[in-house]
Amino acid sequence: MARNKEALVLLIDVGPTMHNIIPEAEKVCSLLIEKKLIYRKYDSVGVVLFGTADTKNELTKEVGGYEHVVVLQNIGVVDGDLVDALQHLPRGSFAGDFLDAIIVGMDMMIKKYGKTDKGKKRLCLITDALCPTKDPYEGTKEDQIITIAEQMTAYGMRMESIVIRGRFSVEANKRIVDENDRLLNIFSKKTRAKLVYVESPISLLGALRTRKITPVTIFRGDLELSSKMKIKVWVYKKTSEDKFPSLKKYSDKAPPTDRFATHEVKVDYEYKSVDDPCKVIPPEQRIKGYRYGPQVVPISSAEWDTVKFKPEKGVKLLGFTNADNILRHYYMRDVNIFVAEPGNSRAILAVSALARAMKEMNKVAILRCVWRQGQGSVVVGVLTPNIADKDNIPDSFYFNVLPFAEDVREFQFPSFSNFAVPSQQNELQQEAADNFVRMLDLAPSGQGEALLPDFTPNPVLERFYRHLELKSKHPDVAVPPLDETLKKITEPDQELLSKNKSVVDAFRSCFELKENKKLKKSSRQMLREIPSGSDEGENYGKGPKKSDTSATEHTSAATIEKIGDLTPIQDFEALISRRDSPIWVDKAIMEMKKKITDLLQQTYNEEEIFLKALEYLIALRKACILEQEPKQFNDFLRYLYKFSQERNQSSFCKFLASKEVTLISKTEAVDSEVTDDEARIFLIKSEPMLE
Amino acid sequence: MAMDLDPDDIFRDDEDDLDDDFHLEKESTKEFVVYLVDASPKMFSTTSPAGDRKDETHFHIAVSCISQSLKTQILNRSYDEVAICFFNTREKKNLQDLNGVFVFNVAERDDLDRPTARLIKEFDRIEDSFMREIGSQYGIVSGSRENSLYNAVWVAQALLRKGSSKTADKRILLFTNEDDPFGNIKGAVKNDMMKTTSQRVKDAQGLGISIELLPLPSPDEEFNVAQFYAELIGLEAVDLAQFIHSAGQKVEDMKDQLRKRMFNKRIVKKIIFSIANGLSIELSSYALIRPAVPGAITWLDSVTNRPLKTERSFICLDTGALLPTSTKHFQPYKNENIKFFVEELSEIKRVSSGNLRLLGFKPLSCLKDYHNLKPSTFLFPSNEEVNGGKCIFIALHRSMLRLKRFALAFYGGSANPRLVALVAQDEIIRGGGQVEPPGMNMIYLPYCDDIRDTEEVLPDSEVAAPRATDEQIRKASALIKRIDLKDFSVCQFANPALQRHYAVLQALALEEDEMPDIKDETLPDEEGMSRPGIVSALEEFKRSVYGDHYDEDGDGKKTSEMSKKRKAIAEDAVKESANYDWGDLADTGKLKDLTVAELKYYLSAHNLPVAGKKEALISRILTHMVVGGRPRKLGKVIRLFMIVQLLTH
């Protein structure tokens, strides 16, 4: 195998207890292959299923046993068929023995590669480990595992076990679960095996690293405590953003018959004289100019090289300081990790001693780093201890870059204690807030932490790669709505909210949004109130533009110009009945629509919100009949229907149907093109389709 | 060559690849500022205690703050325009020909204009000539109907007549240490003067000009804002609190506060923060910490020094046809090109509504040191927010501080939606000034694919890793105690690369020959490190972890092979290199007659890169010989460089 390739055998439990999690397992495994097809096309993958009714593996033929283990795919270079196979895993009907599966997987590796390619062979086990393992013919299970682990080390294989636990696991026999946990733990102690427990579908998607990046050092050399005391370290990236792939531009100019067309687009830059736009200036005649006020100072890059800042390569200690001296929000960039030079036991000891002392004393170190010779800048950053929690991993440090004086803007903000009286909390409000913060807990003690960054996939990338696979089969398919599991990353957990409904409600009722009667009139604020495009930020896609749903406008009966938040229906009615200009009817209808969609965008299937939206919708309907604008309402209702469906919010349509909200029919408004029957059945007929 | 477009590439060598839109604040408006500086004798007679040096006058403090701000501005926000105007002066210089007001300016510049190198240079020296050329004199005295404050505001307002208040933020910053300018006159005249001044200010405000006060409090007496100015510029109770200073402030603290007030807070974006079930509040986000980069570059024609226009064109590689724009993209996948429309890609990226959506809370200990990708963003309740909104924010802020929790939220922008941690920050006040503003810092969290488990996949991790003994940890602790930076503050260092860059630019812009020497503040304190206590602590720690016989360079068995080889090559090169008279070869232009291998002796011996074509090697050798070490005379270096280039071409 070439240097950058790996062989992977997936060991997937498909037994009965796994059935409700298999859809997520299918997603994560197929995504793994999809990414390999793009980034690591020459990697090899094999798939072993266990817990199946069938048995199909070489070991059973050779030595017997190993029932209910099926080799779905022998180790081979990744291809599109494998994606399909993993997207449609069979459901098994037997209790699977993960030990059998591990041995089958190892056997496949050994037969294919023998002792070569150490460190490039990986087994990945996905199971809930709820079923008992069989007793070995001789010795204990522990002995057996130790033997297996030794073999793994000898053949240079790694293992990753992803064990599914938590609320979606079925009632389990505690004795068996404990035994399995103990057994799996032996692996991670005895060999290069990683064991993670996942408690939610999201973390299953995140637990399996779908893109493997070979670590590259950004620095190897001395961590200089002083000129006399140095520690040999290697520095790697600990975090680095996995970016959205930069797609190439496509040209369709090539004739369709040209099978060898690249369809690529070249981006060409030409530099032209301002005075004579026809004259192209060749690259060697160009020189960089740096702005200094209204002046532009020309300096060639060669000149720069002679005068620019050229620090010596090296990582030097400036000193230690209290950890609380460095506030967390000053971390500037992605994070590096400092490890002692591998194999250098004294360097490992030195790092370990420093890290542990820093941890004990709650200190951090400040370093000045120049990673490479010839680099034109230095960084100053903070080194924090990372005490390893596993015996076979040495202690290390994390390194975060800190800002320079030029990087910080020191704006002054009013103290919270200075805000006028209404902003001050009374005790009741503070208690409600405390409860809210305490109860909306994503890391309850005794349970796993939800949405841990280390186990949370990037929803955008997940969506892209899935859509890419989909498009490879159906080129014209539209982008499907965001997957339910991924939605748990972008939206609050409804289960958590409803579990703490009383706390949330109490919090809400304590903080009724009141209208700001006393608008400040100091000139500074007046300027700020002038609406300018710059504050709006981006708008999102085709949906209606978001308005400031919370900021109430200063309204009075005489000059209603917008629909506020406090009395929206009254505002709407006042606005639509304004007769000083014909624009108000359209504006009122438009704003009301926006109000309704905004409401629905904010929440999912919340009865309270539905009632409010219904109230608005009825007001809108009434007004549209009055103002003879039936089409406006009918189109909007149709849009809402589509909108809800796209967002899997069909319950809102059902809700409307149950409240008998219909299209506006001809009898109600002559301009309508909808008959009574059509109007009545619009929402009702669509219902079955939604199921 | 497309890479050349990147304006930051001279700083790009450190893999910073932050999104471009992330860096930029929305700067649709520019700023017009008039610095209005009181030059009354009181400004010269009152001093405040400076830390180590002698006391400084208030006039000096005001002038040095302005000078510093001009220097920042010329580099970062060079489209903003400024005017500097003194009042209570002996001489007058203004278009209206009003007494007691002097508008400071230099050649080739309007009174309100972008700052130039010359302005900065001459303003730096203003104190030397001020008394002689401008002079200080009380403008408001009993018996005269002169009103210098009124005149000053009038002049400032006239200067700001330029441009519309829609496209420019117009501000007057008033520096004074007199809280009662009409104190020495009485009766109807006083009332009359106060009324006309106040009317003048209101007119200016009516035109969209904001007037801000930067008071300089005396050591023994507070500056009483309520005395006169509060009413004049329309301050309310909330704002008033910002002006309460402790008497006897140090100059450093005073400068610090003035500097902070001189900045106009720029909001990056308004964000709707949805908290739960339809409850949402509006927040303003501020980019308080962003890496400073040297200003944008402009391509010039090296013959005429005129700016160039960049034109981009798309060319079809298959047919060579010019394409109008490009709306389709593709990703090769399974031996096919999968095509995507731009809209389709943005639909994929749109996973949320663009709001900031609260997901729940976690203990602060869940936020690990490696949960970071880019600089944080500061959140504060929006100005337009209804009172209830501020109230909710403050309540949550307080609860989060009290319970030591952070909020986990999803921030769904169109470009790069992310999970974020909102960490409540309590206000920190030191030396009478705000060091940390109260609010929440939004920290962008990595996803699982952004985190690498390097430490777990490193070789040699089968065996138990050595751990330090208690004794070794004790020695390390003793060392840590010794080398303690007690008052270390984040961002106390200036960026030496940036300082050098600016200094070179300034020197070239002013056509100075002398290359300013920039001190690299980031170097370790060698002197402090050689104190006996530290040296012995280091020695003891070293002995406890390394033992007595440890060769730091020789211990890494595998790596030493390579480095030994490299060392040998370098030593060999030094030997070989000594056989040539390089200076003579260069002077006589005979370098080109040598072989590449011979040229490499020089390069290896001087630790220079050996890659590239022969011409590149020669040029590198010449550069090295000419520059030698660190250049002092910039002009000379550049002239010499021209010669080098002539030689090599």
UniProtKB/TrEMBL annotation, chain A:
GO biological process: one example: telomere maintenance
EC main group: hydrolase
Claim: Transport is one of the keywords in the record: no
Gene Ontology annotations for the cellular component aspect, listed alphabetically: Ku70:Ku80 complex
Chief location category: nucleus
Signal sequence interval, chain numbering: none
MF annotations from Gene Ontology: ATP binding; damaged DNA binding; DNA helicase activity; double-stranded DNA binding; hydrolase activity; telomeric DNA binding
EC number(s) per entry: 3.6.4.12
Gene3D superfamilies the record matches: 1.10.1600.10, 2.40.290.10, Ku, C-terminal domain, von Willebrand factor, type A domain
Ku domain segment(s): 278-419
Highest taxon above the source species: Eukaryota
Cellular localisation: Nucleus
SUPFAM superfamilies attached to this UniProt entry: C-terminal domain of Ku80, SPOC domain-like, vWA-like
Keyword entries, A-Z: ATP-binding, DNA damage, DNA recombination, DNA repair, DNA-binding, Helicase, Hydrolase, Nucleotide-binding, Nucleus
Functional summary from the UniProt entry: Single-stranded DNA-dependent ATP-dependent helicase.
Family per record: Belongs to the ku80 family.
Record's protein name: ATP-dependent DNA helicase 2 subunit KU80
Species whose genome carries this gene: Rhamnella rubrinervis
TrEMBL record, chain B:
Pfam families per the UniProt record, alphabetical: Ku, Ku_C, Ku_N, SAP
GO molecular function: ATP binding; damaged DNA binding; DNA helicase activity; double-stranded DNA binding; hydrolase activity; telomeric DNA binding
SAP domain boundaries: 591-625
Reaction catalysis annotation: ATP + H2O = ADP + phosphate + H(+)
Enzyme class: hydrolase
SMART domains the UniProt entry points to: Ku78, SAP
Subcellular localization: Nucleus
Keywords: ATP-binding, DNA damage, DNA recombination, DNA repair, DNA-binding, Helicase, Hydrolase, Nucleotide-binding, Nucleus
Active site: K26
Chief site of localization: nucleus
GO cellular component, one term: Ku70:Ku80 complex
EC numbers, comma separated: 3.6.4.12
BP GO annotations: DNA recombination; double-strand break repair via nonhomologous end joining; telomere maintenance
SUPFAM superfamilies found in the cross-reference section: SAP domain, SPOC domain-like, vWA-like
UniProt family annotation: Belongs to the ku70 family.
PANTHER family named among the record's database cross-references: KU AUTOANTIGEN DNA HELICASE, X-RAY REPAIR CROSS-COMPLEMENTING PROTEIN 6
Protein name (database record): ATP-dependent DNA helicase 2 subunit KU70
Organism, as annotated: Rhamnella rubrinervis
